[in-house]
Each structure stands twice: as structure tokens, then as C-alpha cells.
Design a protein that fits this description.
Chain lengths: 317, 290
């Protein structure tokens, strides 16, 4: 009974959290200056990307250190299409997702043949490869990247050039992906994936092709990251290889851990936590990283569950 | 003329290879023995270069700077190991990656505070500033040749140290039978600190040697650290011999890729090489004990 009650409490607390967060993000444009709407938009976009990383990291148990590559491929797809005059979001965004998904398929197919430390280093290496590849594309700005003339167009009455409408579109997309991911991790597919994280050998013995399941998950994750890349290109109206710099992969990983991995709300909270900390620290000093670094080390050493873990202490991992 | 190009590029490739070996030997030793992934290895490389640049400016001698900077970086390595990394040996790789990532952020900013954001340039030491005729009619910068020889020297010294000395024997034993070595009364913790210090010194040395031919700036260690990861993946994690072979392979492949292919493709050569090796030998060319 006590167990049931505990679970009951958790669910309501869960829902309460989602509703509060949703209301908070919904109200940002009303309550604050445009600067904060922009910041909240960035948080949502990075939250989306971190969420996609958590699908492979928290649920699949694959420590990928190259997730920014898919973000970058998505952003560059939008940038390159726009450079050639294709500005329709209905074409550019699915194309961004498809390209990022394809990159994830290629990288995943090779990387997933290994595991553990190899996997970390290989994903890092491949993302660096894509970084150099895009930095070498002189036609599209090379190292310096390139600007976009305008945001993509969605058609109808919606004007993405408006910061407000664009912000709400990001919010809607995040909710949609969140719902999709929630269904995914609770589906049979998600269960197999989590089973393989806990005991790969046993899952294989039961007869599940673990490699294929992981690869599909890796591709889904890359596809979502591609969407977040398309959004970031639209928000900043600028794409550059810096988007897929390896330290960006590190930041996305930090977001997931800071928020709490193996949960869907965690990565979004982590994105908020990291970006807000950066914002606050940079108010005080331009050398804010000298503070952030030690803070992160302390977090790794002493606060493993992240923000989500603190809110839902005692929850089984 | 064509012959000259090939010889010079082959030497450039080997020179990059030994630099990569200096980096990857430390990484692979630390991984093989302590089971630690250290992303901050590139920071030690950077610190070596900065310390040497400052010491060279103060003392006026590159060799003196080198002599002082290497032990300094080793000391910094000891400090990092004792204060932070020691707590991470039993943790998951994910924690190690995050903590050492945070260390990179810290060191990059520290360097920016102490030395400022602008890049430094180190002078090539006088006696090595000319060229040396390796084959009749084919001159080669003496300093690059010196890097090549120094790197090979360190590699042989490391080989002899690990293969032929008592301490090296204990290190080898520690990588395969950690508990047993501890049970025989050897201070494992001290051993770990020592191994990390040796790795740090080699990374610092690589940074110092690179100082005069590259610009000394924040984050300079990161690209070469990622290349070193590629090297140890190809060579087999934990294997010093594998790291040596793979470092030379990667150095030569990267150099010739840059000469023969357009820029967007040439930067991909070594990663494709890595993917190729992984397809056929997922554990690398020389699988280590672990």
C-alpha cells in the first residue's frame, strides 16, 4: 500500500511540475522583455536537443559525446536550403530532420559496433569530422559560417518573423516531441531499449537484436536533434561550424546530467539550469567559466541525480 | 621535385605522428591502468606550451624553458590527480567525461585570465632555426627534424621504462591485476599518481615542442586531443605499442590527405580510416589487455 501511495504521490507531483513549467514558459512573453523571450526560446530549443540526447543516453545507455553534430547538420540543412532560395519550413525542416537522421544512421552504424569508452571517443571523433567538413565548405562561409536572410515561412497566417509566434511554435514543437518521447519510452520498443541498458546479454539471449534497436533509437534521437538545429538556425538567423564544436556536445551532455538523465523533463530543466547559470554568472564576470567548471565538477562528484533527482528524491532510477 | 614533395610530406606526417604519440601514450596508459577517460589531457598540452612560452621569454633560452616547464606540467598533473581525478576511478565513464570536460572549461578560462585572449608566438630556438639537408638537394626544417627525433627518443625511453624496469613491471601488472598488485603491498594510489604525472609530462612536452610551430592559444590542445582519441581507438585502448603504430599511421594519413585532397574531404580522411579499422577490428589494431 505504502508503495502504491508513493507512486501515486509521484504521479501528481510529476504532473504538477509539467503544468507549472508549461504555464511558466507560456507566460514568459507576457511577463518579461523580449530579451527573456529570446532566452526562453533558446532554453526550449536546447531542451529539445538535450531531450533527444537523453533518449539514447538515459534510456538507451549510450554515452554519446557527439550530439552537437546532429544539431549542426539540421541547422546547416536549413541554412544551405535558404542560401539556394528554399525557405518553406514544410520543406526545410523535414529535410533538416532527414539529413540529421541520415548522419545519425551512418555514425551510429559504425559507433554502435563498439561500446563503453570506445563509443564515447568515436562519437566525439565523428562529430569533430563533421565540424571540419562544414568548416571546409568555403561556398557556405567555411569557418565563419553564414547568415540567413529571413526565417523560414510556414504559410497561412503564421509569421515566423514575429518573435512571439516563433516562440510559441518552439513551445508547441517541444510539447509534441515530449509527448512522442513519452509514448516511445513506455512502448515495447522503449522497454527493450531500457532492458538492453540494464542487461544487454540477457536481452540478446531472449532474442532481441539489440544492435538494431539501439541504432533505431540513435537515428530517432539524431532526427529530433536535427529539428532543434533547424530551430536554432531560424532563431539566430545564422549557422556556423561552432554549432557542432565538440564543446557544444559537452554542454548538451551537461544539460542532460544537470537536469537528471533517464527522465524526459530533466533535460529541459537542465537546459534551463545551464543557460540561466551562464546568464547569471556572465552578469558578474566575463570569466564565468572559471566558476562554472568547478561547479560542474562538484555536481558530478556530489549530486548525481540532477535537478529532477532532487525534486523526486527516492525515485528508483 | 615530386620526389622532394613526397619525402618532405612523409617527414611532416611522421613528425605529426610522434606528437600524437606523446599525447596518446599518456591517454592510453591512464585509461589502461586507471580505467579513466581524461578529456583534460589537451589542457596539459596547452599549459605546457604557455609555461614554456613564458619561461622562454623570461630566461631567453628555449632549452631551459623546456627543462623547467616539463616538471611544472608534471606537478600540475599530480595536483589534478590528487585533488579530483582520484575520486573518479571507480565512477562510470560518463562521470569522468563530465568532470574532465569541466576541467577543460576551467583551464581554458584560467589561461585566458593569466595570459590574456591573444595568441602567443614562440621563437624557434637559434641552433635549430635553419634547415638540414636530409637527402642531397632536399632541405628540411631542422626544428621539425628535432621534434621527430625527440619524440622517437621519448617513445624509446617509455618503451624501455615500461618493458625493462621494475617500476614499469609494476605498472604493467597494475593494468591487468590491480587488486593483486595492491595485495602484494604496492602502494597503488602512489602508482596511479605517478602514471598520471608521466602522462601529463608527455602531454606537456608535446605542447612545448608544438609551441614554436603553432600559435600558443586557449583551446590549442583540444583538436590534438581528439586526434589522440582517434589514435587510441585505432591502436586499441590501453596499448602503448598500438598507440605508437596508430599515431604514425594517422599522422602520415592526415598529412597526405591534406596534400592530395580538397579541404572538406581531406579533413575527413583519418575519421574514415578509423571507421574502416573499426569495421574490421572493433577492438583496434593491437587490442590491449582490457
Amino acid at each position: 500500500m505504502a508503495e502504491m501511495e508513493r507512486i501515486g504521490n509521484r504521479i501528481t507531483k510529476d504532473r504538477l511540475l509539467y503544468l507549472t513549467a508549461l504555464a511558466g514558459f507560456f507566460l514568459v512573453p507576457f511577463a518579461a522583455e523580449p530579451f527573456y523571450t529570446r532566452l526562453a526560446g533558446r532554453i526550449l530549443i536546447y531542451g529539445l536537443c538535450a531531450l533527444s540526447l537523453d533518449l539514447i543516453l538515459g534510456y538507451g545507455g549510450m554515452v554519446s559525446f557527439g550530439h552537437a553534430a546532429f544539431l549542426g547538420v539540421g541547422a546547416y540543412t536549413v541554412g544551405i536550403l535558404s542560401h539556394h532560395g528554399v525557405t518553406g519550413a514544410w520543406i526545410a525542416w523535414p529535410a533538416a530532420m532527414a539529413c540529421a537522421g541520415f548522419a545519425a544512421l551512418l555514425i551510429g552504424a559504425v559507433s554502435l559496433r563498439t561500446s563503453g569508452a570506445y563509443f564515447i571517443m568515436i562519437t566525439l571523433a565523428f562529430s569533430q569530422m563533421l565540424y571540419y567538413f562544414f568548416a571546409g565548405l568555403a561556398d557556405y562561409g567555411g569557418d565563419d559560417g553564414m547568415g540567413l536572410w529571413s526565417r523560414n515561412t510556414l504559410g497561412g497566417p503564421i509569421d515566423l518573423g514575429s518573435h512571439l509566434q516563433f516562440y510559441y511554435l518552439i513551445l508547441i514543437l517541444l510539447i509534441a516531441v515530449f509527448y512522442f518521447s513519452r509514448r516511445l519510452v513506455h512502448s515495447r520498443f522503449g522497454m527493450v531499449l531500457q532492458g538492453a541498458r540494464q542487461n544487454e546479454r540477457r536481452m540478446r539471449a531472449i532474442g532481441f537484436p539489440v544492435y538494431r534497436y539501439r541504432l533505431v533509437c540513435f537515428v530517432i534521437s539524431g532526427t529530433i536533434a536535427g529539428l532543434s538545429g533547424a530551430l536554432i538556425a531560424n532563431q539566430a538567423l545564422y549557422v556556423s561550424p561552432a554549432l557542432m564544436h565538440w564543446s557544444r556536445s559537452g554542454e548538451i551532455l551537461v544539460m542532460v546530467i544537470l537536469g537528471g538523465m533517464g527522465s524526459l523533463a530533466g533535460p529541459v530543466m537542465g537546459a534551463a539550469g545551464l543557460l540561466l547559470t551562464e546568464e547569471v554568472l556572465s552578469e558578474y564576470t566575463e570569466h564565468w567559466m572559471i566558476v562554472l567548471g568547478p561547479l560542474l565538477i562538484l555536481m558530478v562528484l556530489f549530486a548525481r541525480g540532477g535537478i529532477y533527482g532532487l525534486l523526486f528524491a527516492g525515485r528508483d532510477s | 621535385m615530386n620526389m622532394q614533395l613526397w619525402v618532405v610530406q612523409a617527414l611532416n606526417g611522421l613528425q605529426l605522428g610522434v606528437m600524437l604519440f606523446l599525447m596518446s601514450a599518456g591517454l592510453t596508459l591512464v585509461f589502461g591502468i586507471m580505467n579513466l577517460i581524461n578529456l583534460a589531457h589537451g589542457s596539459l598540452y596547452m599549459l605546457g606550451a604557455y609555461l614554456a612560452a613564458t619561461l622562454q621569454a623570461v630566461t631567453g633560452s628555449f632549452f631551459l624553458a623546456c627543462l623547467l616547464a616539463v616538471p611544472a606540467v608534471m606537478g600540475i598533473g599530480f595536483l589534478i590527480e590528487i585533488s579530483i581525478l582520484r575520486r573518479l576511478y571507480d565512477r562510470e565513464h560518463l562521470d569522468q567525461v563530465l568532470a574532465t570536460f569541466a576541467l577543460i572549461l576551467f583551464f581554458n578560462e584560467l589561461v585566458r585570465i593569466i595570459w590574456g585572449p591573444q595568441a602567443y608566438f614562440m621563437a624557434i630556438p637559434g641552433p635549430l632555426s635553419g634547415t638540414f639537408e636530409i637527402l642531397p638537394g632536399i632541405p628540411y626544417p631542422a626544428y621539425r627534424l628535432a621534434i621527430l627525433l625527440a619524440g622517437l627518443g621519448v617513445a624509446s625511453a617509455l618503451y624501455l621504462f615500461i618493458g625493462r624496469t621494475r617500476l614499469g613491471m609494476i605498472i604493467r601488472a597494475g593494468s591487468t591485476h590491480r587488486e593483486m598488485v595492491g595485495a602484494l603491498g604496492i602502494n597503488i594510489q602512489f602508482l596511479y599518481t605517478l602514471v598520471f604525472g608521466i602522462g601529463a609530462a608527455m602531454a606537456g612536452f608535446a605542447g612545448i615542442m608544438a609551441g614554436p610551430i603553432l600559435s600558443v592559444e586557449t583551446g590549442m590542445g583540444e583538436p590534438i586531443m581528439i586526434l589522440a582519441f582517434v589514435v587510441i581507438v585505432i591502436g586499441g585502448i590501453g596499448s602503448v605499442r598500438g598507440a605508437f603504430a596508430a599515431a604514425l599511421l594517422v599522422g602520415v594519413a592526415d598529412t597526405f590527405g591534406r596534400v592530395l585532397l580538397p579541404p572538406a574531404l581531406s579533413s575527413m580522411v583519418i575519421y574514415i580510416l578509423m571507421a574502416g579499422v573499426l569495421c574490421f577490428r572493433p577492438q583496434g589494431l593491437f587490442p590491449g589487455q582490457r
